[in-house]
Amino acid sequence: MQANLINGSAGSMPSKAVMPMFNGRPDPAFAEALKKVSPQAQAKAKATATDFEAMFLNSMFSQMTSGIKGEGPFGDTPGTGVWRSMLTEQYSKSFAKAGGVGISKDVYHTLIMQQAGRAS
User: Per its UniProt record, what InterPro entries does this chain match (predicted)?
Assistant: First the structure.
């Protein structure tokens, strides 16, 4: 019954439009671009940006572990290099999915702005 008093009908309160932020500031151009790009294209751009960041992180992690010799439970066998490459790949995907280092946000912003420019 209380919901009827707040907004005149049953249900939740009306939601406010949220301005997208870019680098900590409201970005009205990006908000307009999002209106021009379909939700499917936005999801695809988001996935592409995350994959790009995962590839970057994989390259970085591979360089970080390239000098490590086969210490630990696997010793210095030929399989250690294969195992380590698969491990760094999974680390990079996990890091990117959890938010990464911020590259995917910039890539996503750029992809959306480019797609909106083509749609105009």
Answer: Flagellar_prot_FlgJ_N (IPR019301)
